[in-house]
Amino acid sequence: MNNDVMSLLAGVIDFFSQPMNWQGPGSILAHITEHITYVVIATLIGAAIALPVGIGLGHSGRGGLLAINISNIGRAIPSFGVIILVFLLAGFGVMPVIVALVALAIPPMVTNSFVGMREVDPAVRQAAVALGMTGWQRLWQVELPIAMPLIMAGVRTSAVQVMSTATLAAYVGLGGLGRYLIDGLAVRDLAQVLVGAILVAVLAMATELLFAGLQKLITAKGLQ
Amino acid sequence: MNWGWVASNTHQITAALLQHVQLVGLALLFGFLIAFPLALLAVRWPRLYGPSLAVTGVMFTIPSLALFILLMPFTGLSMATSLIGLTIYTLLILFRNIVQGLRGVSPSVREAARALGYTPARRLFTVELPIALPVIVAGIRIAAVTIIGMVTVTALIGQGGLGQLFITGFTLSFATPLVIGFVLSVMLAVAVDLALVGIQYWLTPWQRGVR
């Protein structure tokens, strides 16, 4: 048992130290690039759909319960099923993966941006009205800056989930770090699986840190 | 949709659904049994909370597929493999919510219970837990819905409940089993979620007027 673990770790170190694994197509860097590409595209499309919906509903205060419920049901959608289903309908390509990841990314962003907008103190809202600010001005200059930490927390949750789920892309023949998991599983090469797991976990943690920093950066000084 | 396939494979579909329910139920049960004492410790000794949250946070970034595969040398293609993996993911969500729920109990309530001569155990079960219940149930709901989707991934290591239907659909290039598995999985999640809301409503009669 101890020997197994040792040889597994040796296998991982060996994998990382082979120059062959660092060059050309199918190299570690190429897989990382593919992986990040899926994640960035899916998170951006997801944000472009989810944030206006969540922010708009939170701003107007209408239809909120409906939005939250739909987005909760959205969490129940199995990404693995979406990938295969869209693959059967649309054929080989990036499309199935992007659709599944966008569906995964939307719910946390809708919920968080809605809650963030709703949690703006009513007194602050009224003060803005009393100052004669228009609806747009209140949205951009008062409510959004206050809601920003929660909105960003939603984007962060989505991005991290998308990062680890993007591994499923490999099942329908695409690249990304899931290749190490699916290929390693196929030939029972656990060292390769562990390599993939480590790389995805590191990327996910880097995403967390990146967003934590970003959140600090764009939160208004007075609110920190 | 090919309803003929559905009619002739009812047995397979029911078996997949049952396994799905079983995996989710057991994972939630084990997750709760482990997370609850851990959360009590973390509330009692706040110093434990930060490190345990960091550890669980890091574990959450491991892709579920990788975790399932890496458990295989220890537990093989058995149900235990997917059960252990799923339990780990419920742990992370449950632990956080139980701690937050218990911490949300106002100190004055806690002191009042102490002044009335409640023993710590009685205080926990008759005062603190009921107050923390909504937050705890919220955690169970998130955990349940999350792992109902995650179970399907374990089809890649020979388990998977309704995920088996996804694999069947993929290998046969045939959408019907996929759609069935998909719809049943989403319906299961919604049903479990509603059931948990109902249980919370039933267990917290004092909250009914508030909303």
From TrEMBL, chain A:
Q: How does it sit in the membrane?
A: Multi-pass membrane protein
* Gene (name only): proW
Looking up SUPFAM superfamilies in the UniProt record yields: MetI-like
Per the record's keyword annotation, is Transmembrane included, yes or no? Answer: yes
State the Gene3D superfamilies in the record.
MetI-like
Q: Which Pfam families match?
A: BPD_transp_1
The main place the protein resides is membrane
- The scientific name of the source species is Kushneria pakistanensis
This chain's protein is named Glycine/betaine ABC transporter permease
Family according to the record: Belongs to the binding-protein-dependent transport system permease family.
Spans traversing the lipid bilayer: 36-58, 79-106, 162-182, 194-214
Q: Which UniProt keywords apply?
A: Membrane, Transmembrane, Transmembrane helix, Transport
Annotated ABC transmembrane type-1 domain ranges read 32-211
- Write out the annotated subcellular location: Cell membrane
| Residues in coiled coil | none
Automatic annotation (TrEMBL), chain B:
**SUPFAM superfamilies membership:** MetI-like
Q: What PROSITE patterns does this protein's entry cite?
A: ABC_TM1
Q: Which UniProt keywords apply?
A: Membrane, Transmembrane, Transmembrane helix, Transport
- Specify the superkingdom: Bacteria
| Transmembrane intervals | 20-41, 53-71, 77-95, 131-158, 178-203
Describe its membrane topology. Answer: Multi-pass membrane protein
Locations listed in the record: Cell membrane
Domain ABC transmembrane type-1: start-end pairs: 17-195
Pfam families in UniProt: BPD_transp_1
Classification via InterPro entries = ABC_transp_perm/SBD (IPR051204), MetI-like (IPR000515), MetI-like_sf (IPR035906)
Family named by the database record: Belongs to the binding-protein-dependent transport system permease family.
UniProt-recorded name of the protein: Glycine/betaine ABC transporter permease
Q: Which organism is it from?
A: Kushneria pakistanensis
